[in-house]
Each structure stands twice: as structure tokens, then as C-alpha cells.
Amino acid sequence: MPGKQLVVFDFDWSFVDQDTDRWVFEVLSTELRRLLQTRKSAGTGMQCTPDVVNDTMRDLYEQGFKKEDILEALRILPFHPAMKRAVTSLQSRSKDTTFLCLSNSNEVYIGTILEKHGLSGLFSEIITNPAHWNPSAPDHLIIERRLPETEPPHGCSIGCLANMCKGDELDNYLKNNGGKDSFEKIVYIGDGGNDFCPLLRMRSKDLALVRKGLELDQRVKEEGEKEGLKLQVKYWEQAWQIDE
Ligand SMILES: [Mg+2]
Ligand SMILES: [Zn+2]
To answer: Which residues form the active site (predicted)?
Structure first.
């Protein structure tokens, strides 16, 4: 009998076919989309994503955009029907599969998109940046860091942003859910540079499904051997290949 399997999804450009942070501004305001970009590449070019999104979200609120505008932008974000088919069919034929979402987006974005597509119950846990509507200004979305600035830094040397080390997050999840060895196999679907760190924590029997031509693809090829990447790697371009 096959053992338990864990399927870990990055969200932007992996589970969905867009970058949630950019998309909301692209839908609502070209000016703020540009400002987000400018802020992101300021200084070292390594600005903490939830910080710049939070700053730009405040501008969006001050320009008079409403909660419903933001929610509607999220509901029309591209999500491939084949990805929905892939996860719902795997879920129905394999009761031993657990789905985990590990993302540098935020709770409100991910929750809204999953609800729109009837997938609110898919993930056993969603590890991401906290977000909430400002109680004294209900149209203002506040986004915070997963790892607050007041906490000691995560100390990861693989290049994770200050707000979240995805490798540490995966390790903690596994520790709290029976340990790594309670899963026969771990599958990780990702595309971004920050998906490289968790792959280094995985075993030779695990599998990475890496989206072709993006930053993770590049890091696996350039740094994989040097950093001791053990797991199997397969490449994909479109959601139907994940279904396969
Ligand atoms: Mg991504
Ligand atoms: Zn890390």
C-alpha cells in the first residue's frame, strides 16, 4: 500500500497563472502598478515583498478604491481549469494525499481566489503572509510579514527574503505533522527563486515540478549541484502537464 504523500504548492505562477501582488494593481491602476515596481527595485532590489505591497495597498485605499474592487480583481485572476482538474482528481483518487500551500502572497489574496474556484477546503494549511481589512477603514487591506520584523531573523543563507524562509516553513510544517519520514513522498510545485531553499531540505525520493524558464529553473541548474540538491526534478510549462 502506498504511504502518505504531501503535495506542496507555491501559489503565484505555480498554482495560479499570475503574480497575485502585481495583478491586483494591474487590474485597478497602471500608476500604482508602476509604483509597486519602482518600490520593489529600489535600493538593493531585495525589498521585502509584503512591505512594498502593503505600502502600495495604502495608496490604493487613499485613491478611493474599495474592498470589493480588490476582491473582484482577485476573482478574475487567471487560474487554469487544468490545474483545478489536477488537484481535484488527485484529491478524489488518493485519500493519502495532503495539500500544503507555501506562498509569499497573503491570506486574503489566496483565500479569495480559492473561494472563487470552490477550493477553500483543498489545502490542509496555507503558510503565507498575514493580511486583514483595517477595522477602522474597511476598504484598506493591511499586509504583514510572515516573520515579523520584531522577531529574530531566520538566518537562511540561500537567499530567502527577510519575511519568510520557505525551507524553514516546510521543515516546521513537517515537524508539526508527524515528521518528514511520515510522508512516503513529498512533491513540490514551484517557479520562483524562493522555492529553491525548501527543495534543498527534501530527499532523493521526493520530486520537484519546476516551471520551465523561470527563476527556480535557473537556480536548480546553476546552484543545484553545488548546494547538494538531492530530489528528482521534472519540468513543466502549462497546468495540463501537472494534471498528467
Ligand atoms: Mg511563484
Ligand atoms: Zn530559506
So the answer is: 10, 12
Ligand nearest to the CA of 215: 1
* C-alpha 67 to ligand 1 mean position (Å): 24
Which of 10, 21, 195, 206 is catalytic? The answer is 10
Question: Taking the model in full, what pTM does it have?
Answer: 0.96
Task: Say how many Å lie between the CA of residue 239 and the centre of ligand 2.
Answer: 26
What single string gives the DSSP state of each residue in the chain? ----EEEEE-IIIIISSS-HHHHHHHHH-HHHHHHHHHHHTSTTS---HHHHHHHHHHHHHHTT--HHHHHHHHHTS---HHHHHHHHHHHHH-TTEEEEEEEEEEHHHHHHHHHHTT-TTS-SEEEEE-EEE-TTSTT-EEE--SS-TTSPP---SS---TT--HHHHHHHHHHHTT-GGG-SEEEEEE-SGGGHHHHHTS-TT-EEEEETTSHHHHHHHHHTTTTT--SEEEEESSHHHHH-
The number of the ligand nearest the C-alpha atom of 169 reads: 2
Which CATH fold would you assign to the domain 5-19+78-136+148-243? Rossmann fold (3.40.50)
10 is in an annotated binding site: yes
Q: Which of 17, 28, 120 is nearest to 65 (CA)?
A: 28
pLDDT tens, position by position, 85-139: 999 999 999 999 999 999 999 999 999 999 999 999 999 999 999 999 999 999 9
